[in-house]
Protein backbone atom coordinates (compact mmCIF):
# COMPACT_ATOMS: atom_id res chain seq x y z
CA UNK A 1 0.00 0.00 0.00
CA UNK A 2 1.63 3.25 -1.14
CA UNK A 3 0.92 6.86 -2.07
CA UNK A 4 2.01 9.29 -4.77
CA UNK A 5 2.47 13.04 -4.24
CA UNK A 6 2.76 15.52 -7.13
CA UNK A 7 4.11 18.99 -6.39
CA UNK A 8 2.70 21.76 -8.60
CA UNK A 9 5.07 24.68 -7.92
CA UNK A 10 3.09 27.70 -9.08
CA UNK A 11 0.99 30.31 -7.29
CA UNK A 12 -0.83 33.41 -8.47
CA UNK A 13 0.76 35.51 -5.75
CA UNK A 14 3.01 34.93 -2.77
CA UNK A 15 1.32 34.69 0.63
CA UNK A 16 3.51 36.58 3.08
CA UNK A 17 3.95 33.70 5.52
CA UNK A 18 4.64 30.91 3.01
CA UNK A 19 7.93 29.01 2.73
CA UNK A 20 6.81 26.23 0.39
CA UNK A 21 8.52 25.89 -2.97
CA UNK A 22 6.59 27.81 -5.66
CA UNK A 23 7.03 30.41 -8.39
CA UNK A 24 4.63 33.21 -9.29
CA UNK A 25 5.86 33.09 -12.88
CA UNK A 26 3.54 30.72 -14.71
CA UNK A 27 5.56 30.61 -17.93
CA UNK A 28 7.11 27.24 -17.08
CA UNK A 29 3.77 25.55 -16.42
CA UNK A 30 3.59 23.58 -19.69
CA UNK A 31 7.22 22.34 -19.69
CA UNK A 32 6.84 21.42 -16.03
CA UNK A 33 3.81 19.22 -16.73
CA UNK A 34 5.80 17.50 -19.51
CA UNK A 35 8.63 16.90 -17.04
CA UNK A 36 6.26 15.48 -14.42
CA UNK A 37 5.10 13.00 -17.06
CA UNK A 38 8.74 12.14 -17.84
CA UNK A 39 9.59 11.76 -14.15
CA UNK A 40 6.68 9.36 -13.64
CA UNK A 41 8.14 7.05 -16.26
CA UNK A 42 11.66 7.24 -14.81
CA UNK A 43 10.44 6.70 -11.24
CA UNK A 44 7.91 3.99 -12.03
CA UNK A 45 10.02 1.21 -10.40
CA UNK A 46 10.34 3.15 -7.09
CA UNK A 47 7.22 1.72 -5.46
CA UNK A 48 8.00 -1.82 -6.66
CA UNK A 49 4.49 -2.47 -7.88
CA UNK A 50 2.80 -1.77 -4.54
CA UNK A 51 -0.87 -0.83 -4.97
CA UNK A 52 -1.37 2.94 -4.79
CA UNK A 53 -4.20 3.91 -2.47
CA UNK A 54 -3.75 7.68 -2.43
CA UNK A 55 -2.79 10.35 -4.96
CA UNK A 56 -2.20 13.90 -3.77
CA UNK A 57 -1.74 17.01 -5.94
CA UNK A 58 -0.10 19.56 -3.61
CA UNK A 59 1.77 22.76 -4.01
CA UNK A 60 1.95 25.56 -4.72
CA UNK A 61 -1.50 25.74 -6.23
CA UNK A 62 -2.52 22.63 -8.20
CA UNK A 63 -5.91 24.19 -8.99
CA UNK A 64 -4.00 26.45 -11.44
CA UNK A 65 -3.59 23.43 -13.71
CA UNK A 66 -5.87 23.31 -16.75
CA UNK A 67 -8.26 20.38 -17.13
CA UNK A 68 -6.19 19.02 -20.00
CA UNK A 69 -2.96 19.05 -17.95
CA UNK A 70 -4.66 17.22 -15.10
CA UNK A 71 -6.14 14.68 -17.49
CA UNK A 72 -2.71 13.94 -19.02
CA UNK A 73 -1.18 13.51 -15.56
CA UNK A 74 -3.99 11.24 -14.38
CA UNK A 75 -3.91 9.10 -17.52
CA UNK A 76 -0.16 8.54 -17.22
CA UNK A 77 -0.43 7.76 -13.51
CA UNK A 78 -3.09 5.14 -14.21
CA UNK A 79 -1.01 3.70 -17.07
CA UNK A 80 2.16 3.34 -14.95
CA UNK A 81 0.99 2.53 -11.42
CA UNK A 82 -1.52 0.02 -9.97
CA UNK A 83 -3.92 2.65 -8.62
CA UNK A 84 -6.65 1.09 -6.49
CA UNK A 85 -10.19 1.62 -7.83
CA UNK A 86 -11.27 3.26 -4.55
CA UNK A 87 -8.11 5.42 -4.26
CA UNK A 88 -8.38 8.78 -2.50
CA UNK A 89 -7.36 11.43 -5.04
CA UNK A 90 -6.88 14.85 -3.44
CA UNK A 91 -6.19 18.19 -5.06
CA UNK A 92 -5.20 21.29 -3.10
CA UNK A 93 -7.16 24.26 -4.41
CA UNK A 94 -7.41 27.95 -3.75
CA UNK A 95 -10.87 29.52 -3.48
CA UNK A 96 -10.33 31.92 -6.40
CA UNK A 97 -9.89 28.96 -8.78
CA UNK A 98 -13.00 27.03 -7.80
CA UNK A 99 -15.70 28.30 -10.14
CA UNK A 100 -18.51 25.78 -10.87
CA UNK A 101 -17.05 24.95 -14.32
CA UNK A 102 -13.64 24.18 -12.81
CA UNK A 103 -15.22 22.03 -10.12
CA UNK A 104 -17.02 19.97 -12.78
CA UNK A 105 -13.73 19.55 -14.66
CA UNK A 106 -11.96 18.36 -11.51
CA UNK A 107 -14.68 15.76 -10.95
CA UNK A 108 -14.46 14.63 -14.56
CA UNK A 109 -10.71 13.98 -14.41
CA UNK A 110 -11.11 11.86 -11.26
CA UNK A 111 -10.37 14.16 -8.31
CA UNK A 112 -12.52 12.90 -5.42
CA UNK A 113 -11.24 15.02 -2.53
CA UNK A 114 -10.50 18.75 -2.31
CA UNK A 115 -8.30 20.48 0.22
CA UNK A 116 -9.13 24.17 0.01
CA UNK A 117 -6.80 26.92 1.26
CA UNK A 118 -9.50 29.05 2.89
CA UNK A 119 -7.29 30.24 5.82
CA UNK A 120 -9.95 32.69 7.09
CA UNK A 121 -13.44 33.93 6.28
CA UNK A 122 -12.44 37.49 7.24
CA UNK A 123 -11.28 40.03 4.67
CA UNK A 124 -8.78 41.69 7.02
CA UNK A 125 -6.93 38.39 7.64
CA UNK A 126 -6.84 37.49 3.95
CA UNK A 127 -5.43 40.89 2.98
CA UNK A 128 -2.90 40.77 5.80
CA UNK A 129 -1.70 37.35 4.56
CA UNK A 130 -1.68 38.54 0.92
CA UNK A 131 -4.02 35.74 -0.13
CA UNK A 132 -5.30 35.88 -3.72
CA UNK A 133 -8.96 35.36 -2.68
CA UNK A 134 -11.49 37.42 -0.75
CA UNK A 135 -13.88 36.50 2.04
CA UNK A 136 -16.91 35.97 -0.19
CA UNK A 137 -14.90 33.57 -2.39
CA UNK A 138 -13.83 31.72 0.77
CA UNK A 139 -17.45 30.96 1.58
CA UNK A 140 -18.79 30.57 -1.95
CA UNK A 141 -16.20 27.99 -3.05
CA UNK A 142 -17.20 25.61 -0.24
CA UNK A 143 -20.87 25.84 -1.15
CA UNK A 144 -20.05 25.39 -4.85
CA UNK A 145 -17.77 22.41 -4.13
CA UNK A 146 -20.50 20.73 -2.11
CA UNK A 147 -23.06 21.47 -4.84
CA UNK A 148 -20.67 19.87 -7.37
CA UNK A 149 -20.67 16.67 -5.29
CA UNK A 150 -17.37 17.04 -3.40
CA UNK A 151 -18.49 15.55 -0.08
CA UNK A 152 -14.90 14.71 0.80
CA UNK A 153 -13.73 18.20 1.53
CA UNK A 154 -11.09 19.71 3.76
CA UNK A 155 -10.35 23.36 4.46
CA UNK A 156 -7.21 24.94 5.90
CA UNK A 157 -7.56 27.61 8.58
CA UNK A 158 -4.78 29.69 10.17
CA UNK A 159 -5.02 30.95 13.74
CA UNK A 160 -2.98 33.20 16.00
CA UNK A 161 -2.39 35.99 13.45
CA UNK A 162 -2.43 39.64 14.57
CA UNK A 163 -5.60 40.57 12.65
CA UNK A 164 -7.55 37.57 14.00
CA UNK A 165 -9.37 38.34 17.25
CA UNK A 166 -10.66 35.62 19.56
CA UNK A 167 -14.16 36.40 18.33
CA UNK A 168 -13.00 36.24 14.70
CA UNK A 169 -11.44 32.83 15.33
CA UNK A 170 -14.66 31.57 16.90
CA UNK A 171 -16.55 32.77 13.82
CA UNK A 172 -14.13 31.00 11.46
CA UNK A 173 -14.44 27.68 13.26
CA UNK A 174 -18.20 27.96 13.69
CA UNK A 175 -18.57 28.80 10.00
CA UNK A 176 -16.67 25.63 9.03
CA UNK A 177 -18.80 23.55 11.41
CA UNK A 178 -22.03 25.14 10.14
CA UNK A 179 -21.03 24.34 6.55
CA UNK A 180 -20.55 20.69 7.60
CA UNK A 181 -17.00 20.62 6.24
CA UNK A 182 -15.96 17.08 7.27
CA UNK A 183 -12.21 17.73 7.61
CA UNK A 184 -10.30 20.71 8.99
CA UNK A 185 -6.55 21.35 8.90
CA UNK A 186 -5.74 24.17 11.32
CA UNK A 187 -2.30 25.71 11.71
CA UNK A 188 -0.80 28.33 13.98
CA UNK A 189 0.66 31.23 12.03
CA UNK A 190 4.41 30.65 12.16
CA UNK A 191 7.15 33.01 11.05
CA UNK A 192 9.50 31.06 8.82
CA UNK A 193 12.96 32.51 8.13
CA UNK A 194 13.26 34.15 4.73
CA UNK A 195 9.54 34.83 4.27
CA UNK A 196 8.08 38.29 3.64
CA UNK A 197 6.43 38.08 7.06
CA UNK A 198 9.81 37.48 8.69
CA UNK A 199 11.20 40.59 6.93
CA UNK A 200 8.19 42.74 7.92
CA UNK A 201 8.60 41.77 11.56
CA UNK A 202 12.35 42.43 11.51
CA UNK A 203 11.71 45.89 10.03
CA UNK A 204 9.01 46.42 12.68
CA UNK A 205 6.43 46.99 9.95
CA UNK A 206 4.14 44.42 11.59
CA UNK A 207 3.88 43.23 15.17
CA UNK A 208 5.50 39.90 16.09
CA UNK A 209 3.20 36.90 16.34
CA UNK A 210 1.83 36.42 19.86
CA UNK A 211 2.42 32.80 20.99
CA UNK A 212 -0.11 33.15 23.83
CA UNK A 213 -2.83 34.02 21.36
CA UNK A 214 -1.94 31.02 19.19
CA UNK A 215 -2.04 28.74 22.25
CA UNK A 216 -5.41 30.15 23.27
CA UNK A 217 -6.83 29.68 19.76
CA UNK A 218 -5.58 26.08 19.68
CA UNK A 219 -7.19 25.27 23.03
CA UNK A 220 -10.47 26.87 21.95
CA UNK A 221 -10.34 24.99 18.66
CA UNK A 222 -9.93 21.61 20.39
CA UNK A 223 -12.93 22.37 22.57
CA UNK A 224 -15.27 23.64 19.82
CA UNK A 225 -14.58 20.97 17.23
CA UNK A 226 -14.65 18.25 19.89
CA UNK A 227 -18.16 19.38 20.88
CA UNK A 228 -19.14 19.30 17.20
CA UNK A 229 -18.09 15.64 16.89
CA UNK A 230 -14.74 15.99 15.10
CA UNK A 231 -11.90 13.61 16.02
CA UNK A 232 -8.61 15.33 16.75
CA UNK A 233 -6.72 12.61 14.90
CA UNK A 234 -3.46 14.51 14.37
CA UNK A 235 -2.16 17.70 16.00
CA UNK A 236 -3.27 19.92 13.10
CA UNK A 237 -6.05 17.75 11.68
CA UNK A 238 -9.66 17.21 12.71
CA UNK A 239 -12.21 14.98 10.99
CA UNK A 240 -15.81 13.91 11.41
CA UNK A 241 -15.92 10.10 11.82
CA UNK A 242 -14.99 8.41 8.54
CA UNK A 243 -13.46 11.51 6.92
CA UNK A 244 -9.79 11.35 7.89
CA UNK A 245 -7.24 12.09 5.16
CA UNK A 246 -5.98 8.69 4.04
CA UNK A 247 -2.97 10.24 2.29
CA UNK A 248 -1.68 12.13 5.31
CA UNK A 249 -2.48 9.19 7.61
CA UNK A 250 -0.34 6.94 5.44
CA UNK A 251 2.68 9.25 6.00
CA UNK A 252 2.20 8.94 9.75
CA UNK A 253 1.80 5.16 9.48
CA UNK A 254 5.12 4.80 7.67
CA UNK A 255 3.75 3.69 4.28
CA UNK A 256 5.94 4.22 1.24
CA UNK A 257 5.36 7.15 -1.10
CA UNK A 258 6.76 8.57 -4.29
CA UNK A 259 7.03 12.34 -4.64
CA UNK A 260 7.08 13.84 -8.14
CA UNK A 261 7.97 17.41 -9.07
CA UNK A 262 10.40 20.01 -7.71
CA UNK A 263 10.98 19.77 -3.93
CA UNK A 264 8.89 16.57 -3.63
CA UNK A 265 10.08 13.94 -1.13
CA UNK A 266 9.96 10.15 -1.48
CA UNK A 267 10.30 7.38 1.11
CA UNK A 268 10.72 3.63 0.53
CA UNK A 269 11.23 2.26 4.04
CA UNK A 270 15.03 2.57 4.18
CA UNK A 271 15.89 5.85 2.46
CA UNK A 272 14.43 9.29 1.88
CA UNK A 273 15.07 11.37 -1.20
CA UNK A 274 14.05 14.82 -2.29
CA UNK A 275 13.99 16.56 -5.66
CA UNK A 276 15.72 19.88 -6.28
CA UNK A 277 13.62 22.88 -5.12
CA UNK A 278 14.14 24.88 -8.28
CA UNK A 279 11.83 24.80 -11.31
CA UNK A 280 14.47 25.61 -13.94
CA UNK A 281 16.96 23.02 -12.62
CA UNK A 282 14.20 20.41 -12.34
CA UNK A 283 13.09 21.02 -15.94
CA UNK A 284 16.65 21.06 -17.32
CA UNK A 285 17.50 17.76 -15.63
CA UNK A 286 14.32 15.99 -16.75
CA UNK A 287 14.83 17.23 -20.30
CA UNK A 288 18.18 15.41 -20.17
CA UNK A 289 16.47 12.27 -18.86
CA UNK A 290 17.64 12.60 -15.23
CA UNK A 291 15.74 13.01 -11.97
CA UNK A 292 17.54 15.70 -9.90
CA UNK A 293 17.42 14.42 -6.32
CA UNK A 294 19.49 13.96 -3.19
CA UNK A 295 19.18 10.87 -1.04
CA UNK A 296 19.73 10.02 2.61
CA UNK A 297 19.89 6.45 3.92
CA UNK A 298 18.03 6.18 7.20
CA UNK A 299 19.66 4.61 10.25
CA UNK A 300 17.49 2.71 12.79
CA UNK A 301 17.87 5.67 15.20
CA UNK A 302 16.65 8.12 12.55
CA UNK A 303 13.66 5.90 11.78
CA UNK A 304 12.79 5.47 15.46
CA UNK A 305 13.02 9.22 16.10
CA UNK A 306 10.82 9.89 13.10
CA UNK A 307 8.32 7.35 14.39
CA UNK A 308 8.30 9.03 17.84
CA UNK A 309 7.76 12.46 16.25
CA UNK A 310 4.95 11.44 13.90
CA UNK A 311 3.15 8.95 16.15
CA UNK A 312 2.96 11.31 19.13
CA UNK A 313 1.18 13.82 16.90
CA UNK A 314 -1.61 11.29 16.27
CA UNK A 315 -4.66 10.40 18.33
CA UNK A 316 -3.48 6.77 18.60
CA UNK A 317 -0.03 7.71 19.92
CA UNK A 318 3.28 5.85 20.04
CA UNK A 319 3.12 2.06 20.14
CA UNK A 320 5.74 0.74 22.59
CA UNK A 321 5.24 -2.88 21.50
CA UNK A 322 6.05 -1.87 17.94
CA UNK A 323 9.11 0.05 19.18
CA UNK A 324 10.30 -3.08 21.04
CA UNK A 325 9.73 -5.36 18.03
CA UNK A 326 11.51 -3.07 15.57
CA UNK A 327 14.22 -1.44 17.66
CA UNK A 328 14.72 -3.61 20.77
CA UNK A 329 13.56 -3.82 24.40
CA UNK A 330 16.19 -1.33 25.57
CA UNK A 331 14.73 1.37 23.31
CA UNK A 332 11.28 0.69 24.73
CA UNK A 333 12.60 1.03 28.28
CA UNK A 334 14.42 4.24 27.33
CA UNK A 335 11.21 5.70 25.95
CA UNK A 336 9.15 4.67 28.98
CA UNK A 337 11.72 6.19 31.33
CA UNK A 338 11.91 9.42 29.31
CA UNK A 339 8.13 9.81 29.16
CA UNK A 340 7.63 9.65 32.95
CA UNK A 341 8.26 13.37 33.44
CA UNK A 342 5.55 14.22 30.91
CA UNK A 343 3.13 11.66 32.40
CA UNK A 344 3.65 13.18 35.86
CA UNK A 345 3.09 16.69 34.41
CA UNK A 346 -0.27 15.53 32.97
CA UNK A 347 0.85 16.14 29.40
CA UNK A 348 0.95 12.48 28.45
CA UNK A 349 -0.56 9.14 29.49
CA UNK A 350 0.27 5.49 28.96
CA UNK A 351 -2.66 3.28 27.95
CA UNK A 352 -1.42 -0.30 27.79
CA UNK A 353 1.45 -0.15 25.36
CA UNK A 354 0.44 3.20 23.85
CA UNK A 355 1.98 6.54 24.82
CA UNK A 356 -0.59 9.25 24.06
CA UNK A 357 -0.49 13.02 24.45
CA UNK A 358 -3.22 14.64 26.58
CA UNK A 359 -4.78 17.89 25.32
CA UNK A 360 -2.40 19.72 27.70
CA UNK A 361 0.57 18.15 25.90
CA UNK A 362 -0.61 18.59 22.31
CA UNK A 363 0.47 22.22 22.29
CA UNK A 364 4.04 21.05 22.91
CA UNK A 365 3.96 17.89 20.79
CA UNK A 366 7.12 18.50 18.78
CA UNK A 367 9.12 19.64 21.82
CA UNK A 368 8.05 16.59 23.86
CA UNK A 369 8.90 14.25 20.97
CA UNK A 370 12.34 15.85 20.63
CA UNK A 371 12.98 15.26 24.37
CA UNK A 372 12.22 11.58 23.83
CA UNK A 373 14.53 11.09 20.85
CA UNK A 374 17.02 8.25 21.23
S1 LIG B 1 -1.14 29.72 -2.19
FE1 LIG B 1 -0.26 28.21 -0.74
S2 LIG B 1 1.71 27.60 -1.64
FE2 LIG B 1 1.05 29.46 -2.70
S3 LIG B 1 2.06 31.14 -1.62
FE3 LIG B 1 0.04 30.90 -0.69
S4 LIG B 1 0.33 29.45 1.04
FE4 LIG B 1 2.14 29.31 -0.30
Automatic annotation (TrEMBL):
<dbReference type="InterPro" id="IPR010723">
    <property type="entry name" value="HemN_C"/>
</dbReference>
<dbReference type="Pfam" id="PF06969">
    <property type="entry name" value="HemN_C"/>
</dbReference>
<keyword id="KW-0411">Iron-sulfur</keyword>
<dbReference type="InterPro" id="IPR058240">
    <property type="entry name" value="rSAM_sf"/>
</dbReference>
<keyword id="KW-0949">S-adenosyl-L-methionine</keyword>
<dbReference type="Pfam" id="PF04055">
    <property type="entry name" value="Radical_SAM"/>
</dbReference>
<keyword id="KW-0143">Chaperone</keyword>
<dbReference type="InterPro" id="IPR034505">
    <property type="entry name" value="Coproporphyrinogen-III_oxidase"/>
</dbReference>
<comment type="similarity">
    <text>Belongs to the anaerobic coproporphyrinogen-III oxidase family. HemW subfamily.</text>
</comment>
<keyword id="KW-0349">Heme</keyword>
<keyword id="KW-0963">Cytoplasm</keyword>
<protein>
    <recommendedName>
        <fullName>Heme chaperone HemW</fullName>
    </recommendedName>
</protein>
<dbReference type="GO" id="GO:0004109">
    <property type="term" value="F:coproporphyrinogen oxidase activity"/>
</dbReference>
<keyword id="KW-0479">Metal-binding</keyword>
<keyword id="KW-0004">4Fe-4S</keyword>
<dbReference type="GO" id="GO:0051539">
    <property type="term" value="F:4 iron, 4 sulfur cluster binding"/>
</dbReference>
<dbReference type="InterPro" id="IPR007197">
    <property type="entry name" value="rSAM"/>
</dbReference>
<keyword id="KW-0408">Iron</keyword>
<feature type="domain" description="Radical SAM core">
    <location>
        <begin position="1"/>
        <end position="231"/>
    </location>
</feature>
<comment type="function">
    <text>Probably acts as a heme chaperone, transferring heme to an unknown acceptor. Binds one molecule of heme per monomer, possibly covalently. Binds 1 [4Fe-4S] cluster. The cluster is coordinated with 3 cysteines and an exchangeable S-adenosyl-L-methionine.</text>
</comment>
<dbReference type="GO" id="GO:0006779">
    <property type="term" value="P:porphyrin-containing compound biosynthetic process"/>
</dbReference>
<dbReference type="InterPro" id="IPR006638">
    <property type="entry name" value="Elp3/MiaA/NifB-like_rSAM"/>
</dbReference>
<dbReference type="InterPro" id="IPR004559">
    <property type="entry name" value="HemW-like"/>
</dbReference>
<dbReference type="GO" id="GO:0046872">
    <property type="term" value="F:metal ion binding"/>
</dbReference>
<dbReference type="GO" id="GO:0005737">
    <property type="term" value="C:cytoplasm"/>
</dbReference>
Amino acid sequence: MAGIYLHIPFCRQACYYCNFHFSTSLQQKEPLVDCLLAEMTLQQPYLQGQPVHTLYFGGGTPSLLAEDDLRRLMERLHALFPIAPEAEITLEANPDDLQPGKLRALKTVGINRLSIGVQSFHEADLRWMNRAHNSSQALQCIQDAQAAGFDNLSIDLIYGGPTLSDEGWAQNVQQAIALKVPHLSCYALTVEPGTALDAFIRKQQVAPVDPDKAARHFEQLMQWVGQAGYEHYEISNFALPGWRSRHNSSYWQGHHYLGLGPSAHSFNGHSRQWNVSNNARYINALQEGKVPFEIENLTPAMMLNEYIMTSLRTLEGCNLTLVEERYGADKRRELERGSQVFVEAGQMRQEGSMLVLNPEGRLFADGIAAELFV
